[in-house]
Protein 1
Amino acid sequence: MSKSSYDIALLPGDGIGPEVVDAAVTILDAAAAAYGFSLSYTSYDAGATLYQSTGVSISAATMEAIGSADAILLGAAGLPSVRKPDGTEIAPQIDIREHYGLFASLRPARLFPGVPTRVQAEHIDMLVIRETTEGLFAGRHDPLEPSDDAVSDRLTITRATSERLFTLAFEQATLRKATQGTPGRVTLLDKANVLRSNAFLRKIFDEIAAKYPDIASDHLYIDAGSMMLVTNPERFDVVVSENVFGDITSEIAAGVVGGLGVAPSGDVSLEHGVFQPCHGSAPDIAGQGNANPVATILSGAMLLDWIADRHDDTTCRTAAAAVRDAVASVLAQGPKTPDLGGTASTSEVTHAVAEALSTSRVRA
Ligand code: ATP
């Protein structure tokens, strides 16, 4: 049921994380004011800076508290200079994924007019869905058998997770077709010709596809599919894959539509959603005031869509579309940050998006 106010948990994190989260909050507030709902925010510490002072990257209390918010907005967590004793980086976003069973990562890749791309394509608008809890990550916590001769990683596909994943993919294709006029097609990328686990994955995909006669479906082997993402990205609508194939696929898709500065994402289960830019904390540009806020602002639009779905709230859905349109007009006309060839600051771009949002509302 729709509400007049929604609670958002903020995890600004490290590096440019707080800068881009501030920008997204400015736009979310502008959207809420224009469309007549309200958002309240609670900010929590998580990441490498917290780890340096406390020895934990996210406290147990924060982990619990964020679960009761309507949605979570994360900036970026981790710094290359801050490492755990085993040499790995701080990544509370992976802990949150595991804690709340966020089994799918949604990564839209849309080419906005005005954004430079190295591929030859006019119209790219796809949604890559990556499974995030099993596949080639399934054995991440398996005991390591000490050996200098051979080490294995386990690839596991379960029916339960695959059915949820593919149902989500077909539901997303249906929603995109209805609300954005996309063609309505789901493509599975796999290695079913070699890996038994992937032959099983494909079988489950076909079972779920049969329940959605209005949505087209097809499969490509991951190698050929990866090439086509670069040579013919226009052919894709919703793309779905197991964990590691999906990880790589989503970065290729982000690359063809202009890079990390414009790539949003959402890690979701049926109950919880964490929205964040695909980029990391970018310590090389932190504090300079010129990080591109677009990826986080678009993640904020995904957050509004998520709330709209869960609460059947058409106002939030309209506001999400308005945020995307405002971003599109700013990317087309400028101002733009240096990663897109411009000279503008984070706040100049943010204010331009807010201005475009309020102008479009007045016109509507
Ligand atoms: P992680 O492993 O945490 O995802 P990463 O190693 O992929 O991080 P990023 O922090 O994402 O690295 O940065 C990669 C490059 O992209 C850096 O040069 C960084 O400055 C640039 N970059 C990332 N995000 C942005 C942004 N929002 N605006 C401008 N440049 C960015």
Protein 2
Amino acid sequence: MASDISSTLAEGRTSASSAKSTRREAETAEFAQAVLAGLARRPRSIPSRFLYDAVGSALFEDITRLKEYYPTRTETALLETYGAAIARLAGDVDILVEFGSGSSRKTRLLIDALDGLDTYIPIDVSESFLTEAARRLEAEHDGLTVKPLVGDFTRTRHLAGAPRGQKLGFFSGSTIGNLTHEEARDFLVNAAHLLGRNSAFLIGVDLKKSLDILLPAYDDDDGVTASFSLNMLARINRELDGDFDIGSFAHRAVYNDAKGRIEIYLESLTEQTVQVRARRFSFDKGERIHTENSHKYSVPEFQALASSSGWRPVEAWTDDDRLFSLHLLRCA
Ligand code: SAH
Ligand code: AVI
């Protein structure tokens, strides 16, 4: 009997670890495809989700603690102040689904405010970070089932293993701002299908503001954001047999007023040739790779986007300095 159980457990472990290595291989293949295509096109660009391997996720956590980076502490304060009101307006919730959950630190405030929550489904592309955050959260909350889903939230078409029940979506940190308006609309339309009829959705959205506040948040004095950006090149070296000289690229953050977004680039400081998976890419001095956008919205701008994407705005909360907003939406 004991050996039956242990062999079943061992088989379970084997299939779980082989699923994990298949997933890793698929992620590396996608990364390779995105990098090789992105370095060959003009302007050069690599999608921002590839910033988040284990190193990138840890660096992002460091960013959230910077004095210059106001979004995390402001959103946390909004959740502390309005958590009870959010829970009341959200109504009965059985399942909380979080997109780009990261450390799930802010989620604790929402979980504590929601009565009778049964299941938490965090979705994130950064596998080891997600697994560890989910394990910690489950250990802290008796009776809460945590079902982490590894993957790209823009391409999640069903919630594998989710029980039936009323869902609340949570998309914190203004990660929606990392999507273009078109991508954000597609994401919201898909989320409406995923979360289902009459579901609610709580989304943290960074507000438009003065460049005195905005620019340092994306280019801090200690160079943590620069390390986060440059990790894209370090990851290429680690995973794709690249030979980027990290010191000969610089992090650049600029505000594009017409598009209402911070744009982040890696700029070559010299004329140089780089090799990735045996393909050569030449850079002129000053040539850039676009790695990230971070769109900023006024409250009416975001409400208009949500309304055109299958969601009805219910309430929006902002801090007194109007740095950040939290939007509660209902599936239309
Ligand atoms: N919500 C957290 C983390 C924000 S950082 C907070 O507010 O602090 C953005 C998170 O989204 C990271 O954990 C990153 O791994 C994840 N992420 C970014 N793009 C993603 C994508 N396309 N699919 C799934 N996860 C993604
Ligand atoms: C996760 N995301 C919302 C962050 C942002 O503010 O756009 C990522 C980030 N990039 C540099 N600093 C923070």
